[in-house]
Amino acid sequence: MSKYTFPAGFLWGGAIAANQTEGAYREDGKGLTTVDLIPAGPQRWPVMGGKLDAFEPQLGLMYPSHEAIGFYHRYKEDIALFAEMGFKALRVSVSWTRIFPNGNDTEPNEPGLEFYDHLFDELLKYGIQPVVTIAHFDVPVHLVQTYGSWRSRKLVGLFERYAITLFTRYKDKVKYWMTFNEINMLLHLPFVGAGLVFSEGEDKRQIQYQAAHHQLVASALAVKACHELIPDAQIGCMLAAGSTYPYVCNPEDVWDAMNKDRESFFFIDVQSRGAYPGYAKRFFKDNGITVEMEQGDEELLKHNTVDYIGFSYYASRTASTDPEVLGRMTSGNVFGSVDNPYLQKSAWGWTIDPLGFRITANQLYDRYQKPLFVVENGLGAADEPGPGGEVADDYRIDYLQRHIAAMGEAIEDGVEIIGYTSWGPIDLVSASTGEMKKRYGYIYVDKDNAGNGTLQRSRKKSFHWYKQVIASNGGNLSADGLY
């Protein structure tokens, strides 16, 4: 637990998203964004999959993003706590509708721009580098209503203008950017990933891959603009990662596992290598998918590849072609996975696989030979404060110890990793379930699933542990003697 040597200047920190923390969903000119229409409760999953009945919040439903954890008004308090832990970086996202409330406004919203000025200034005051995601599960609702979201080519130009607005405004404050959060989620939760709403009888897969092409072109245009406007910046892509294992050594299981990985790699292959891979073209042909491209798209993709690969890692996945095995699917896994008997699971059904983290990092680096940035990793758990008010989250420390150790092993393997921003350094709204009960943070937020609570912040045991990890640059992962 103490033998790992992380690179000098390694970017230790945490990661949050605007839609899961900020709240203030209609303040200071902000427009409605897609997540503002995703309720908690049984209606949540159908909406995330693209079944939406109305383009405005409905009475009687609870929408977690509307208040979230109040970060919009409490960011100084929260950043001071991150600084106390010694953060070198904080990954955040910009809410598109704070900048362009409708997405196609003629001028940006100045109060929205000012908020992120203040946020980045506060981070830099403590020497914390902002790592900014341009679109983190975020599409203006007006663009969904007007154009059908990313199914329309119109969004490419609007996203490019949005990105250029950010680069121009924050070029002296932000040196690490990412285009789309977990871009491959478009295929699994299409409303979350791309604001896609489907009508009865539509060819969903055709629409999803056309939307994917539009996002890939928009990403390339953002990379081009970033390189031109901020030459000393780095801009990356972001993948929801996790290697897929064959359940048994049956070649059909191996082939199925490879294809499930390729489903995700497709996006990063284009963003990192600059071209549609042959296996994707074969898939389109075999499935009757026609991706419409404009003249110049292929050249744009070829010449505007990303500088680094950002990825999230929570769990590995397992694939099988055996009908009996397919009946034993794990719960809580968006990607679908059969139960792996060799692995423990979290309370929400996610497999706990530190070695899988090392495997995934090696796999990505072998494939792309570009620096990696671990921008999400963490354990969602139902934390309960003890008699003294502090959460003794030894289970989280154990999870993170083992995963950071696996990351250290990957670096020893020769994998270039530039930073680690664990997910949810402060409790926030879960993107999948919409719960507050599913907590990831080193900092406890007093709020429950129903929205009750004071929003008061308090340090968990893992807060003190992670502070020690950062101070030692990963050299001391022990939890001994914390209290």
Automatic annotation (TrEMBL):
It comes from the Bacteria. The keyword Hydrolase applies. InterPro entries: GH (IPR017853), GH_1_N_CS (IPR033132), Glyco_hydro_1 (IPR001360), Glyco_hydro_1_AS (IPR018120). Keywords: Glycosidase, Hydrolase. GO terms for molecular function: beta-glucosidase activity. PROSITE patterns: GLYCOSYL_HYDROL_F1_1, GLYCOSYL_HYDROL_F1_2. GO terms for biological process: carbohydrate catabolic process. The active site is at E376 (nucleophile). One of its GO terms (cellular component) is cytosol. Belongs to the glycosyl hydrolase 1 family. This is Amygdalase. It comes from Paenibacillus typhae.
